[in-house]
Amino acid sequence: MSKKNQHVVPHQGGWAVKSEGASKASSIHQKQSDAISQARNTAIKNKTEMLIHGKNGQIRERNTYGKDPFPPKG
Fold first, then answer.
1. How far apart are CA 24 and CA 2, in angstroms?
2. What confidence tens digit (pLDDT) does each residue in 58-67 have?
């Protein structure tokens, strides 16, 4: 299992979870919430980031489950 960030991206008729840099999806889901759950579990297990993309493909949310390279101050 690679330690790459997990992306939730639009896919034909649903949503896909893809590891960063992968050409194929690791899983495909009808609902975005199911894809987010799968990506979150993988990111927690691998201590990486999960990035959620909107329907337009732009990142709308990101969560770090490992060492955060840019932790907030304060």
1. 14
2. 999 999 997 7
The DSSP annotation for 7-64 comes to EEEEETTEEEEEETT-SS-SEEESSHHHHHHHHHHHHHHHT-EEEEE-TTS-EEEEEE
Q: pTM, whole model, 2 decimals?
A: 0.86
Using DSSP, state whether 5 is helix, strand or coil: coil
9: amino acid identity, one letter = V
C-alpha 9/C-alpha 47 separation (Å) is 20
Longest dimension (CA), the chain: 42
